[in-house]
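Same chain as my last thread, 438 residues:
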Amino acid sequence: QSQKPAAFAARGGAARHGGGSTPARRGGLPVKLSTMAPKSGFMTPKAIANKIKAKGLQKLRWYCQMCQKQCRDENGFKCHLKSESHMRQMVIFGQSGGKIVEEYSREFEKTFLQHFRTAHKHSRIAANVIYNEFIADRHHVHMNSTKWVSLTAFVMHLGKTGKCKVEETPKGFFMTLLEKDPNERLRDGIKEKKKKAEEAEEVRHAKALSRQVSRAQRESGFVAEDGGGGSAGGTEIDRGAMAGPLGFDLKSRSLSAPSPSSASQAGSGNVLLSAEGDGGPGGRNDGGKIRKKSALDEIMEEQEAAKRRRTVKVAPSAPPRWARSGIIVKIMAKALKSEGFYKEKAEVAGVETDEGGRHVAQLRHLKTGAVLKVDQAQLETVIPKEGGRVVVLRGKHEGRGGTLVGVSAKRYQAEVEMGGPGGARSWFEYDDISKAAK
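reply #2:
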């Protein structure tokens, strides 16, 4: 009887622990085995919670810009600071820290102004509002990696550099964008250039008119009371033979014999026709001498001549030929837009002149090798990068090659070193040079 319960207990223990294996023992006592909970995997509640936490913005003080890593708490940030990858980035930062901070500052300012220009180009907006919109992108350059320690310092920097108009109010700083788009700056520069050219033309015209008046005064011997050549003063009119009243005969006269009334008028005092023939402007006076033209007469003649020149239609002459083989040009023909050649670059293989005087260039597309024929008026020159080879298309250096040294956006000109290294340098307009084909 004592053995039966023992055997029964052994069989029951074996059934409970699976098969005939005996349970694990620790110190001679049986140990209770418990099933382990599975780790957090894909789409488990814990994994979903971690993804939700990582999706939103975290605290700025727990972000490492060099490693571009965002930590969720202080403990994780401390562990990251002791990691090997962070140590390697700190070694790189220690070699050129100022340069890296300056690069981050330029990138932060560039992206901030780009967002400002896109979202609130013509608006007056609070600095905090636009900053919160900007940092909504979790991959932006953080301010703790720039040279500005606060948003106020950055806003004051934009105001001092003239890129934004900054206003300090009881509700905070408000900003208005002042920076213009590059295309707007280019259009303003062209308008300013045209305005200066028109003003220079007016000044030249005024100087030419002043020289004509001075020359007329010297020839007539007139000197103003103040000792210099001034405008002609009032003088008494000497009518001479025209002292009598003027009469006009509006009646039709026969060609055979004049009427007595008209003859009496011609004999008594109507000397208008004779005055126009003999003593008119630039004609002869009663003494037979040639009278000098006054300054007023010269000015009137100049104005009449200018009017005649403006009214005369001049036949349009053929445009000068500038396209030549061996250069790279840009196709600006909108008719070829559907074919995919609009604003594409091509090499000029030859130029022909048709019967209408147009210069047609034979082009070879650089990407596809297709051969095209495009009018010279629908082509533009191409300016290469600094150090690239160019060909002069107009002027005394026409046909010569050179190397592009630099460009001036304000003057719309490019500096070219003629010939080989060490050659003479000259400035050319953008339309006077083009990139040379290889």
